[in-house]
Amino acid sequence: MTVSTLCIPPDRLWRRLMQLAEIGQLGRSGVNRQALTALDLEAKQWLVAWARTRGLAVSTDAIGNLFMRRQGRVAAAFPVALGSHLDTEPTGGRFDGAYGVVAAMELLDALDEHAVETDRPIELTVWTNEEGCRFLPGCMGSKAYAKPDLLTAMLQSSDATGVTVREALEAHSDGLPDLPLRPLGQPFAAYLEAHIEQGPVLERGNFAIAAVSGVQGRRLYEVSFQGVSGHAGTVPHPLRHDALQRSLPFLQALYDRAADDQDIRITPGRLVLEPNSPSVIPSRLTLTLDIRHPSNIELAEISTWLRSLVPSGSLASVTIEEIDRCDAATFDRYLTEVARLACARLGGSVRPLVSGASHDAHALASFCPTTMIFARCQGGISHHEDEYASPEDLAAGATALGACLMAASRVQAVGEVAGRKGAIGP
Ligand SMILES: [Zn+2]
To answer: How far is the CA of 149 from the centre of ligand 1 (A)?
Structure first.
């Protein structure tokens, strides 16, 4: 039997989410289930028990990602992967990550219940340490999978108590014995992820769900303005070199640009004023500047523009240094169009969103054709006990993801085995 749509009802999806939220429950409705802890392991054991009842082939890899595979008609075809993460922030909610995993469970169950045989194998994936709150970097599992060269450094990353990822993984694998180990970087035909939006855009637009066209890029700068300190009472203003005053035209230009361009996000996050004393003229202001945009070309232009804001005469007293960067990702056009049409059909947004936060899909976007679906979350609140999304919205998102799954799971006539980027296309 083949079907073009899998309709996911809300009840069981919701029940499963609430069951999962009991593992690491914090207060009334929060969750604290940090990466590679005993609770994270318990959540994985819960999922593996389900996979075994479904007859899925479960495996793991060197960074502790989990894979649950449902065979397809063409056994040699690259699988379609779908999933998310089970770890949370210390003050996390019930939906971030867990939703993507449970939506994938529902879709695999729906395939069985409708006796659908897909061309490609389907793999439910759980990525290790997406949050990055216990071990850096975040999106650890998906990054290592897409770029196995990163593994060695990641295994040495340690938490605040000195436990390394390598040690935590050993304890983890004792709790999940007999799982075959597979290499990192095995090709996928596509990767699909459902997630709560974690922002207020869908709620403000009164949409339940939306396709996601990509993830914005980020540049982090440290900017410092040098002045000369002096007595607050004795130095007349025309003779002052006040570092804070020197920064004002620069900061105003940033806010003006942010007001003009709805795609840009500019945040002066940390300001350090020296000597920071009530009666001393500031001699130095150092600030971090977090700038995000969906276009890497724009981000490069912004970098040049920032420097142009500094009057040439004062170059010596102003420094702008890029201290971190993460490039923007654009999701696969075909899959995102499938997602967009499915969302529009289900009463969601006709316009895809750009994700403001990073996700495992961000790391996988350069590895294989990738897309995401967002579900509305109340008040845009996330990483918080009050994180909430309705059963109906979550089910609609899973149904839209199912449309992507059915499109991606078809083997194209030509080009299946060509390269690791898979062979998804219209
Ligand atoms: Zn997440």
So the answer is: 24
2 band by pLDDT with thresholds 50, 70 and 90 = very low
Number of H helices and E strands in the chain, helices first, is: 12, 15
Half-sphere exposure (CA, 13 Å, Cβ side) for 417?
A: 3
The Å distance, Cα 176 to ligand 1 centre, comes to: 23
Cα-to-centroid distance, 131 and ligand 1 (Å): 7
Among the residue ranges 14-18, 250-254, 358-362, 414-418, the one predicted with the least confidence is 414-418
Q: What is the DSSP string of 303-345?
A: HHHHHHTS-GGGGGGEEEEEEEEE--EE--HHHHHHHHHHHHH
Ligand 1: centre distance to CA 197 (Å) = 9
Angle at 159 between CA 154 and CA 162, to 5 degrees: 105
Q: CA angle at residue 273 from 268 to 278, to 5 degrees?
A: 130
CA of 129 to the centre of ligand 1 (A): 10
R_g of the chain, CA atoms, integer Å: 24
Ligand 1 centroid distance, CA of 323 (Å): 24
Q: What is the pLDDT of residues 353-368, one digit of tens each?
A: 999 999 999 999 999 9
Does the pTM surpass 0.90? The reply is no
Dist. CA 42–CA 45, nearest whole Å: 5
Question: What does the DSSP 8-state code read for residue 76?
Answer: T
Q: How far is the CA of 195 from the centre of ligand 1 (A)?
A: 7
User: What CA–CA distance (Å, rounded) separates 77 from 409?
Assistant: 9
Mean pLDDT, rounded, for 196-209: 96
Bridge partners of 293, per DSSP, are 217
148, 141 in Cβ contact below 8 A? Answer: no
Please, how many CA atoms are within 13 Å of residue 241, restricted to the half-sphere of its CB?
10
Q: Which amino acid is at 314?
A: S
* Residue 111 CA: distances (Å) to CA of 33, 99, 118, 289: 30, 18, 8, 47
- pLDDT band at residue 292, thresholds of 50, 70 and 90? very high
Q: What is the pLDDT of residue 421?
A: 47
Cα of 88 from ligand 1 centre, angstroms: 8
Which candidate, 120, 184, 202, 193, places its Cα nearest to that of 148?
Answer: 184
Confidence at 313, pLDDT banded by 50, 70, 90: low
Distances (CA, A) of 370 to 21, 115, 161, 279, 338: 27, 26, 36, 56, 12
